[in-house]
Structure formats: structure tokens, C-alpha cells
Amino acid sequence: MKKGKRMVKCIKMYFYPAAVFILALCAAIPPAFGAGLPQTAHHSGGDKAAAVLLAEPAAPNGGRSSRVQSAENSAKRSRVAIIIDDLGNGMKGTDEMFALPVKFTVAVMPFLPTSVKDATRAHELGLDVLVHLPMEPRQGKPEWLGPGAVLTRMSDAEVRKSVEAALDNVPFAIGINNHMGSKVTGDERVMGIVLAVCKERGLFFVDSHTNYRSVAGRMAQEIGLPPVENHIFLDDVHTSAHVVKQMRLVQEKALNQNYCVTIGHVGIHGKETAAGIRSGIAVLKDSVEFVGISELVKDQWKWNSRVTLP
Ligand SMILES: [Zn+2]
């Protein structure tokens, strides 16, 4: 009992004054924090404004339904579609890419030794397949193009024949993207034929964006195809550290505009690129969702392909 009494006395002596002191301190603090309050309010206001801004430009056709659609999209996680170009020739990094732990898209060049094998392997793994169609560049060596290339000097009939032959050569393709092609993607006549074939077959075209004056996106929209384009090349510098850096840009872009399309390559530096992408995925996986290009096209542009796979 005596011990208990001493304890109560002790509490009264030390705890009460301490509690009073803490309460007084709390009362005194808000004005001090108050200086920071407008900043906090401004910040959350800024976020709201950013959300509104995001919803507006993301609307592809304007109008109420697009805004509703954008609002729905912004409620979802931001999406990243990685496309791996230049498959079909047994290039370095092919196995490493196929071992990546997320869904992505492979772009397979036609008429090459592993074209059919790579497209089939991708399809069996549940990945999306594009035909990586060689297209004439403004500069560069013709031999970099590979077989079956589309050239601006071709007649309308020849362009059509090339596109159709490439599509027939790569199984499971749901669309086309351009290998090189800085000259062709700026050519309205040739792009008109490429896009017309896409439309006839229920496919879409992804502009790799090798030409900033590309007409592909605008022309695609004009005939009712989704204006899909690459935003960021991952491996313009050939180290895995650079690829990881680019993946962070991808994350930023995806969080800002709800989605991001990005391209990497198999090839001489394919293993470095694959390693960089793998590290990047580990960094990004909690903030974005990795999807195939088909999911992005379907959700972002509400475009449904009627493609019939062989
Ligand atoms: Zn390519």
C-alpha cells in the first residue's frame, strides 16, 4: 500500500506537470505549422488541377463520353506497354526478354530464320505479337532493313503486296509497328496503304516514332484506327544502367498521362537491355501495371480488334 501511495504521489508530481506541459506545447504548435498549411493546401489543390488537366487532353475525341472514359481510366492504375523490337533473327537477348516477369509485346520481323518460332513462342506465353515491318529510313544502310521492306519508290500495289506478305508471314500478329521507317512514316501515300491494310484485317499500327514528322497517328485517326505511338526508346544508349534510367522516365510519363508505350530491342546489346528492363520492372511494379499493347489499345482508345488469329 505504502508503495502504491508513493507511486500515486510520484504520478501527481511528475506526470501531471508533464501532461500540462505537453498540452501547452500542442496548443502552441499549430500557429508554427500554420505557415506550412497554405503550402499543403496548395499542393493538394495542385493535384486536383493536375487530375483535371490529365482528364482533358487524354480524351481523344473530346466530348462528354471521352471525358467520362478518361475519368474511368484515371481511377485505374497507370499502364505501361513495353514493346521489344527486332525479334525473328535469333538475336542476343531473345531468351532473356522472354523470361521477363510481366506481360509485354514482341515485334517480330518477317521472313527471317526465327520469325515464326518467336511469334509462336510469344503467343504461347500469352504475349502480344506485332509485325515489325521494315520501312525505308531517310538515312541508314538498306541492308539494315531486312527482307520484305516497304519503300517509297514502290507502286501502290507493291506496297500493299509487301504489307500483306509480311502479315501472312508472322503468325498471331494483332498489329504492325515500323522497323526504321523515318521516310515511310512521313509519306502519306505509302502510310495510307499500310493503314488501309491494317484496317481491312482488324489490326492497328504502332508508330515507333523514328520520325517526329510522322503522319501515321493523324492518318490512323482519320480512318478510325487508334493513334498508338512509342513515347520512349529504352536503349538508345546501350547500357543496362541507361535502360533503368529510361524506365524511370517511363514511370513518370505513365503516372502523368495514365499510360506509356516504350520500346527496347534484342540485338548486339539485347542482354544489357533485358537486364535493364528486368531491374526497371522491379522498381516500377508497385506503381504501374505492365500490359500488352492490345490491352492499352482496348482501354485507352476503346478500340476492339476483330482480328481472327490463324
Ligand atoms: Zn527495329
Automatic annotation (TrEMBL):
Signal peptide: 1-34
InterPro entries given in the database record: Divergent_DAC (IPR006837), Glyco_hydro/deAcase_b/a-brl (IPR011330)
Gene3D superfamilies (alphabetical): Glycoside hydrolase/deacetylase
One of the GO BP terms on file: carbohydrate metabolic process
Record's keyword terms, sorted: Signal
Pfam families: Polysacc_deac_2
SUPFAM superfamilies: Glycoside hydrolase/deacetylase
Protein name: Sugar deacetylase
Organism: Paenibacillus riograndensis
